[in-house]
Each structure stands twice: as structure tokens, then as C-alpha cells.
Amino acid sequence: MAERVYLAIDLGAESGRVIAGIWNGATIRLEEVSRFPNGPVALAGTLRWDVLRLWDEIQQGLKRAARLFGGKVVSVGADAWGVDFILLTRKGGMLGHPYHYRDARTRGMLDQAFLKVPRREIFAQTGLQFMEINTLYQLLAVKRDEPELLAAADHLLLVPDFMHWCLCGSCVVEFTNGTTTQCMHPVARDWAKDLLDRFDLPVKIFPEVVPPGTKLGKLRGSIAAETDLAGVEVVAPPTHDTAAAVVGVPAAGNGAPNWAYVSSGTWSLAGVEMRDASLSERTLALNFTNEGGLDGTYRLLKNIMGLWLIQQCRRSFEARGGSYDYAALGELALSAAPLRSIVDPDDARFFNPPDMPAAIQEYCRETGQPAPESEGALVRCAVESLALKCAMVLERLQELTDRRIEIVHIVGGGSRNVLLDQLTSDACRRPVVAGPVEATAMGNLLTQARADGEIGSLAEIRDVVRRSTDPARFEPTDSSEWRDAEGRFAALVERSR
Q: Could you give the CA distance from residue 108 to residue 140 in angstroms, rounded to a whole number?
């Protein structure tokens, strides 16, 4: 058959890409069309996203895609991180500069919210893990600090939905990213209007919710002319990057899966795929979250601080004159002493410290451990701590689901970190299948292909992923040191509570 090309706009916390998926009827080949930097912008003591620059970069990527693939391009869709949003007026004017989720304005907002609506009731109406970055608490901060913005707003769009609005004018929120807001009901699968009313938030700004795979319309005429992509459809993939990555897990079989996933990037999200949200008292007590997936599935998972620790260590090393890529840092970590010092990655001090190595060292000294001094020791500490946190989450997932997990799939950028893959296998005492690195783009693109009628079920999508990629497999090595480290780590996590 003639090749068909789908375009993924994949926005991450560090960078964004336009990626082409070239489909031949059996497999998909990915080609990076363009890449551009991303990150928080400091503005008057706040952290913001420069979404207009991102939009300009996206347009440049689309132009290049047209030059490379011409009339083969069928559709385009965007995915990004969750929780952050843009407020629009009725005529499409942006209200303010969108905040970055690491901005400090939501600190203490959880306790303020619980004074109005108890924690248990919020969980019953949303099924979501309690994190101050969630859209609900960001909106409460806007209501407190800038109520005039909410009064003037006509639509709230999450970041990928905003990009779809830029592309074709659609004013909808896609389901998977909508579930990250803590504003959506996990049973009704629509906005939690009663909860929003109790917080006196304007329900009218929350647009229609659509499932992944929805065709949103053709490119705006001006965009089609500018990019030379006339007639190209805009399709909503699973717009939350983790939801797209889980679609791209190369797992086999139907029914209740015996596998867990770790979508490893700036955040590590470890979970399992479910038919329905888990709303038990134990799920609430463990602060797990229910986020939407393809075909109405839910992802029962835990957010872990992730490779952010290593990214910020690298940033500090560079500020002091060191120059290391991630591969070099991995080699340094490999030569460092194992399991000498560990931290709870989710301790609040690691959320956005001015100096990550100093924060890790301070934590170790406070907990009676040797402070890692060298670059390799710091990175080794971070990687081992992430592996131990993953193992802890895995055991709790088994408890919550009454399901034996036999294998762990690590997908995303972290899957290329061989040390992380092996240490996760060791800590979890299970095989790890690492890859694809581009699982998010895979899930985005193959959902578009399904909307185009080329693929059927979610299981068939994963068949395509297996045929199109070559993941690596890691087997656990037995070590009494890991068993000892589990006990030390559990005590640290308890201390952080």
C-alpha cells in the first residue's frame, strides 16, 4: 500500500518535537522532523510557559513536514504534560501568561481546599492523587489572586487542547488529559460540576470532553496555507503524554494484564491499566491516582519525581563548569559505590530546589547517611532511589488490584538509561522490558492511524508497536543488599510523610 504519514506534536517539560509516523500498513517508522527547547520562563517572581513560542516552533515543524512528505500527510495531533491550562475569552484572546506547574503560588493550597471540601469528598468526585500542582488548586490560586481572569474567561483549555485550538479552532478538552485536573468525575467521566460549584469555580469555562481518537476538524485555512498542508485533519490523540505512552507499551494479550508500566521522563509514572477507576479507602490512603486512557480505560498509578532529580543535578554540574551528557553521567554512576546513600525522591525539598546536589546531600546528612560528593555518587543515589520507589509502588499496586504483576515495562526517555533499567529490575525482582523510547509519539501516531481506519483495537495497536520496535530485556540479579535497602527506604518514606 502507499505510505500514509501522521504527525505528532509531542511537548515535554524539557523539549518539544514534531515527529512523523510513516505507516506502511503493518509497521510504523518514526522520523523526527523538528526539535525545540522548552522549559519554565521566570517572570516577575513567577514561572510561566511560553506557549506562543512553542506554537511558532510547531508551525515551523509542520512546514518542514510538508516539504518532506507532501501530500502523504493525513493528520496531526498534540500531546503534552497535564494540569497546566490557558484561559481564553469568547473571541480567542489569551488571558495572562499560563503558569508553570512548579510555580510557588499553589503552596499550601491543599490545606485551604480541605477547609472547604474534605479530602475524602474530593477524592470520591475525582479519584485523583493529591498534588498541589493539580489544575484544581491552580484554579483556586487564580480565584484568590486574579479573580478578574476567571470572570473574563470563556474557555479553559489544557496545553495540548490549546494547540489543537491553534490548529483548527476546536474548543474541547480530550478525556485523558482532562482526568489529570482533579476537576473530572471518575464514574460520570465528565466534569465534576458539584465539586466545582462547591469551590465557587465557574463551570461554564470547562468545555466539552471528547475521547481520544476524535476528529476535531481540518487545519484552519490560514495554517493550511502557511504550512502547505491543505486538507490535513486534526485528531485528538491521548493528549496526556503518559496516556499516549501507555498506548505505546509493547505488551501482549487481552484481559487483565499481568504487567505494570513506568513512563520514565521528567516524572516517572508507575501504574497498571484498569477498566474502571479504583476509588477504595485504601487507594485514597496510599494517595494513588486514576487517570484516563484509550478506550475508556483508567491508569491506576503513582507520580514519582522521576528523572527531574538527574536533570537538575546535571544543570548544577554545568553551572559549576562541568559538561556531561546523560550517557556520561550514567558511566560515572556505574562506577560509584552501590546503595551507599538513598533518598525519597518525592520529598518536598526535591520539587524545585535551587541546587539539587545540595538538596540531596542535605537530605542524606539529616537521615544519618554519608552525603554523596562526586557527580557519579549523586546520580547513582538518584537512580537507586527511583528504582526503590518503583518497587514500593509495584507492591502497593498488587495490593490495590489483587493482581500479580509479572513484568515491568519502562517506556519513554528513561528507558535508554541502562543503569536505571537494570536497577529497577533488581529492586522490583522482576524482568524489565525497556522501550520504546518514543512510546508517547507511538501512542499518539497510532491512535491517529486508528482514527484513519488503518488499525482496530488497542491490542492491535500494541501488536504494531512490537512489530515496529526492538525493546531490550533486563533480568533481575539477586542481591541481599537490595533487601536491606528496601527496609532503609521504607523508613525514609515514612519519615517524609
A: 11
Closest CA to 260 of 397, 457, 81, 384: 397
Show the domains of the chain with their CATH numbers: 4-235 (3.30.420.40), 249-435+456-497 (3.30.420.40)
Q: Which three cell numbers stand for residue 121?
A: 469528598
pLDDT, mean of residues 327-346: 95
Question: Mean pLDDT, the chain, as a whole number?
Answer: 96
Q: Which residues are catalytic?
A: 241
CA distance 190 to 15: 31
Instruction: Quote the percentage of the chain above a pLDDT of 90.
Output: 94
In angstroms, the CA 481 to CA 2 distance is 55
Give the angle 294-29-174 at the CA atoms, nearest 5°.
25
pLDDT of residue 254: 57
d(CA 393, CA 345): 13
Give residue 1's pLDDT.
67
What is the grid cell recorded at 417?
538509561
Closest CA to 485 of 418, 368, 385: 385
pLDDT, mean of residues 418-424 = 96
Q: Give the C-alpha distances (Å, rounded to integers) separating 78 from 17, 163, 267, 316.
A: 10, 7, 19, 31
Whole-angstrom distance, CA of residue 154 vs CA of residue 142: 15
CB atoms within 10 A of CB 253: 10
Report the helix count and the strand count for the chain, using DSSP H and E: 19, 21
Q: What is the DSSP letter of 23?
A: E
pLDDT tens per residue, range 17-35: 999 999 999 999 999 999 9
CB 223 within 8 A of CB 458: no
Question: Is residue 259 a contact partner of residue 409, using CB atoms and an 8 Å limit?
Answer: yes
Please give the average per-residue pLDDT across 312-319, as a whole number: 95
What is this structure's pTM? 0.93
pLDDT, residue 120, reads 97
Q: Could you say which DSSP state residue 232 is in? A: P
Spatial separation of the C-alpha atoms in residues 468 and 269, rounded to whole Å: 24
* Element containing residue 493 per DSSP (H, E): helix 480-496
- Looking only at the bridges linking them, the beta strands covering 73-79 and 4-11 are parallel
The pLDDT of residue 479: 77
Neighbours of 48 (CB within 10 A): 17
d(CA 495, CA 216): 48
pLDDT at 460: 96
Taking residues 55-77, report their average pLDDT.
97
Cβ distance 175 to 189 under 8 Å?
yes
Tell the residue number behind the cell numbers 517524609, with chain if given.
496
